[in-house]
Write a structure and sequence with these properties.
Helix content is 56%, strand content 15%. It is α+β, with helices and mostly antiparallel strands. The protein has two domains: 3-25 and 105-179, Topoisomerase I, Chain A, domain 4, CATH 1.10.132; 33-100, Gyrase A, domain 2 (2-Layer Sandwich).
Length: 181
């Protein structure tokens, strides 16, 4: 396979990974430790991610348990979670923070499913931009024969179609998960 196609597949893979990470942060009916990724709290004047200050476990399907490595950080972590507007109220216990994920209403589920669709559209646009950049790169290159360029264009198109199909599969799975009560 040509190095151009290999390079394109690497960039497309990064777009897919970014899409999956963004979907992981969306709420579904169950608790997911990924919703705390990117949530920061004040730690001696700096903004630090909660996941680097505490371990996050899943004791029950609708519950997250955040155990700080140091008990002194309990209140700052709870404040960081409250400020993140996740729709979850942290319950501070003796040595941990319990997050009870409330069941989603039908309207909320539909709204989150729309957000997932929007993320899928953004991922597809990103992949189309990668395709456009590589096709432009091919057109500018005068050292390649027309047959070779056409073959590489076909390989690029196949890679893009495969990525779009993967996005649709991931989206369908996530939407089913969101809409399941």
């Amino acid at each position: 396979m040509d190095s151009i196609v290999t390079e394109l597949q690497g960039k497309v893979g990064k777009s897919l990974e970014s899409f999956e990470n963004a979907l992981g942060k969306l709420r579904s009916g169950r608790a997911n430790p990924a919703i705390l990724e990117g949530v920061k709290c004040d730690y001696y004047g700096d903004k630090i991610e909660i996941t680097s200050l505490a371990s996050v476990s899943l004791p029950e399907p609708r519950q997250l348990l955040v155990k700080p490595y140091s008990r002194e950080d309990l209140k700052t972590i709870a404040a960081g979670i409250a400020q993140a507007n996740l729709g979850i109220n942290p319950q501070v216990e003796a040595d941990a923070i319990r997050l009870m994920v409330p069941p989603l209403t039908e309207d909320t589920r539909k709204e989150i499913a729309k957000q997932a669709k929007g993320l899928a559209d953004e991922a597809k646009v990103s992949i189309r931009n990668v395709r456009r950049d590589y096709l432009d790169l091919l057109k500018e290159d005068e050292t390649m024969s027309d047959d070779y360029k056409e073959r590489v264009e076909d390989e690029i198109q196949k890679a893009i179609e495969g990525a779009n199909k993967k996005i649709d599969e991931i989206l369908a799975y996530k939407q089913k998960e969101i809409m399941t009560i």
